[in-house]
Amino acid sequence: MEQEMADIEALNEEEPEVPTIFKKATRAVSLKFEDVVYKVKLTKAGFCGKIVKAEEKVILKGITGKVLPGEMLAMLGPSGSGKTTLLTALGGKLGGLLDGNISYNGKKFSNSMKRNMGFVTQDDVLYPHLTVTETLVFTALLRLEDSFTTEEKIVHAESVITQLGLTKCKNSIIGGPFLRGVSGGERKRVSIGQEMLINPSLLFLDEPTSGLDSTTAQRIVSNLWELAKGGRTIVMTIHQPSSRLFYMFDKVLLLSEGSPLYFGEGSQVMDYFSSNGYAPAVPMNPADFLLDLANGM
Ligand SMILES: Nc1ncnc2c1ncn2[C@@H]1O[C@H](COP(=O)(O)OP(=O)(O)OP(=O)(O)O)[C@@H](O)[C@H]1O
């Protein structure tokens, strides 16, 4: 018995310490956006491809909001309402006819802010033949600064695997359409992990739960909630979160055809609409109710 206890103690002592990467955000970011307007020029080609008409389409029609460190913002709205366009604009990735003010700790977008940001796109771009560990170690070797040794970079990658609950599949290949690999939820967590390696204080995610069952979606949003509570600012688009997911969001932005219908505390949204005469006739998931409203139903 004594020997057993000594072995357990020895094991605990050998447990490697989780690197600082997941402990706290190092450079907290307050994101503020005011009256964001985005337009595109649509051209119509006539005979022989000659442009006969160019018209302007307004995609974002004056959107304002603020997200603080420790908060998670969900952008909701029907398909085509402008969620991805706004996310891309906030992530500093949208050029062209963009108006309004977007600031990060009161400053404009800069390269140093870019290095403090992560962006997880809807379509994960991963190598199908690499395993989860190989993918994250490869990314760590490429993206972490040279001030880290190779061993430290590998420890970071392993820590991301543990923190995102990928230990069980760490030796499985990613896979693709013709190659069976990890599940959709695991794949999404690998994509999030790739961004987490640089420990960004501001993280954008486009539809991180799309195509996943509600338990897997819950797990991913819980991971993101934990990251937010470490002082990070998290902004995501999401289609139809379940009720329990919905209440994890500190702030909600509801869009309809590029216009904001609501921006504020997630916990206040139902009261806001019911005080304006819009309340569901039967108890329902707030996200479904908001989507019905944004669809004009
Ligand atoms: N560069 C562009 N040229 C023309 N139309 C555009 C352009 N960018 C976006 N749009 C249009 O703007 C609208 C909003 O697109 P966006 O992708 O932001 O919507 P979304 O809310 O993210 O939709 P989904 O939920 O289906 O992903 C759509 O009607 C889209 O076709």
TrEMBL record:
One of its GO terms (cellular component) is plasma membrane. Its main location: membrane. Residues 31-282 form the ABC transporter domain. One of its GO terms (molecular function) is ABC-type transporter activity. The keyword Nucleotide-binding applies. It is a multi-pass membrane protein. It is found in: Membrane. Pfam families: ABC2_membrane_7 (PF19055), ABC_tran (PF00005). Keywords: ATP-binding, Membrane, Nucleotide-binding, Transmembrane, Transmembrane helix, Transport. It comes from the Eukaryota. Belongs to the ABC transporter superfamily. ABCG family. Eye pigment precursor importer (TC 3.A.1.204) subfamily. This is ABC transporter domain-containing protein. It comes from Salix udensis.
